[in-house]
Amino acid sequence: MTNSTVAAGAVERHLRARRDTGRGLLLPYVTGGITPGWTDYLRAFADAGADAIEVGLPFSDPTLDGVTIQEASDRALARGASVRRILADLAGLPDLGVPLVASTYYNLVLHDGPGAFCAALRRAGVGGLIVPDLPVHEAGELSDAATAAGVEPALLASPATPQPRLAEISRRSRGFVYAVSLMGTTGERAVLAASAAELTERIRRVTDRPVLLGFGISTPDQAREARRHADGVVVGAAVMRRVLDGAGPDDLRAFLTTLREALDQECDPPR
């Protein structure tokens, strides 16, 4: 079986099922096309205990990415990475046992149109989609196209999101709600932002959909702290800094295993 056989709605079902056993969810990120054998990282992520994997489709003018992800995108684009090439690489993969979630900016979605874009994701075995620069009140066309293609669009919520809009984001999101821990760009940080706890608590008032906390999760201690508030974590810059520094799949497997162990340690899961 290949990832192209992924069932519609599989991302949320998969994450809910794992969450409901008390497991902390781990969603690591890799920039597609970053190295010649970049898909080897995906297998390493799955082997380390990832519950889903985020694959970035690099864009030349990102707005929410910090310096590390920007550098990774620039490097991938310089190697000739494109949406079509990345999806072709994914389509040829054997089943990893965990869902794939693509992330990119709306310009790339518009290039082919939401319908064609989401259909291409689906054919490549991608079950979810994150578009961070698309606000919820403008997401209708993409959400409809994604639903028609069997792709689950996960929406972002930030500490500045008013409660009525937070409820709308939680209602319309699929797969999970992506809780942005702070106002700013992606990147490694010394401590988990204090705003993370309040945001995840506000999201939980309006949904029981899985809530994953991202932006600044870099260490086992931060993953453990995040687990006290959210169902799990998204880890991007900390992964990509290691890739940019030359880390191979085995190195990333070892790093993510430390996060997996931290998430699995005692800590009362969020209520």
UniProtKB/TrEMBL annotation:
Q: Which residues constitute the signal peptide according to the record?
A: none
Origin organism is: Microbispora rosea
Catalytic center residues: 54, 65
By what name is this protein known?
Tryptophan synthase alpha chain
Gene Ontology molecular functions: tryptophan synthase activity
The catalytic activity of this protein is classed by the Enzyme Commission as: 4.2.1.20
**Pathway named in the protein's UniProt entry:** Amino-acid biosynthesis; L-tryptophan biosynthesis; L-tryptophan from chorismate: step 5/5
The UniProt family comment states:
Belongs to the TrpA family.
- Catalyzed chemical reaction(s): (1S,2R)-1-C-(indol-3-yl)glycerol 3-phosphate + L-serine = D-glyceraldehyde 3-phosphate + L-tryptophan + H2O
Role, per record: The alpha subunit is responsible for the aldol cleavage of indoleglycerol phosphate to indole and glyceraldehyde 3-phosphate.
Mind telling me which Gene3D superfamilies this protein's record contains?
Answer: Aldolase class I (3.20.20.70)
Q: Which UniProt keywords apply?
A: Amino-acid biosynthesis, Aromatic amino acid biosynthesis, Lyase, Tryptophan biosynthesis
